[in-house]
Amino acid sequence: MSDSRGIVSIVTWAVLLVTHNSVQAQPPFRLETVPFTDPQRMFEQMFGEDSAEDRAALRKISISADDEADYGARILESGLVAWKKEGIEIVSKGRAVEYLQSLVETLQPHMTQSDRYPQIRVLLAKSPRVDARSCPGGTLIIFQGLLDAARNEAALVGILSHELSHLDRGHQLLPLKRIKLMERKFKNGFQPDEFFQNGPWMIKLMARPFRPEDEKDADTDGVAWAFAAGYDPREMAKLFQHLAEEQKEPKQQADLGPNFFRTHPAYRERQQLILKQVTRLRKKHPQQELFIGEENLRERQSRKQAES
Questions:
Q1: Residues 110-128, buried b or exposed e (16+ Cβ, 10 A)?
Q2: How many CB atoms lie within 10 A of CB 286?
Q3: Residue 299: exposure state from Cβ atoms within 10 A (0-12, 13-18, ≥19)
Q4: What does the pLDDT look like over 247-282, one tens digit per residue?
């Protein structure tokens, strides 16, 4: 195994461990907050910030499709093992999977990197959890609970667009990009002791694997792509409102705790941002008819499938 592959293996294991633990501890779409009096200062003191030079370097780093596929396969395998232990069945066939696959195929052309992901694989998790995941390399895992909570095809399309945006923007590839920066610290070969002495760098690879700013970007794409495909993104806003009420999310932003430690913005915050974006889109395209599709979701037959 090369030095680079050794670093990749260790970091992949670490990212999977942190991601798995956070999944077990959080409600759908939102990480539990941590009560620190000054979280920003504490985080920076412990882990440090990326320098302007590092941020510029990260933007220039590219990850090959092969490296992404390998990384994604490891993450997916870890997830499948964890879900199996939870008793969650993962299926790749059936009417619901075909339905989801049809919706993904409708949205895929809106991706700027659609050529990088010629085939998006869809898996269905038989769990009441309201959740959806995108995995590097081009795999979406949709939980049954999301299909039950969405209420219509338009809301579901918004969430699927959100997950596709994570792939399109390469949000999950940040750890791999950081690895390439770290490799510069090991020009003379990989030494485990030296590696673990670089604590802040190691922690940066794992800390906040899903950032609120990434989620806002994905929501923005989700609205734009759903609208462009002829769906009403306001239904996604209604879904977030429903989840906020169901989970008794505090109405005041201050009562939610430090935003720095949340992986996703609050449901109500996301709802309002979506509605504002839809208002702007409607002003530009006032005559566009928007599809909702309650029966489509109920029958597991997409608009595309019904028209073919």
A1: bbeeeeebeebbbbbbebe
A2: 7
A3: middle
A4: 876 665 433 333 333 456 788 889 999 999 999 999
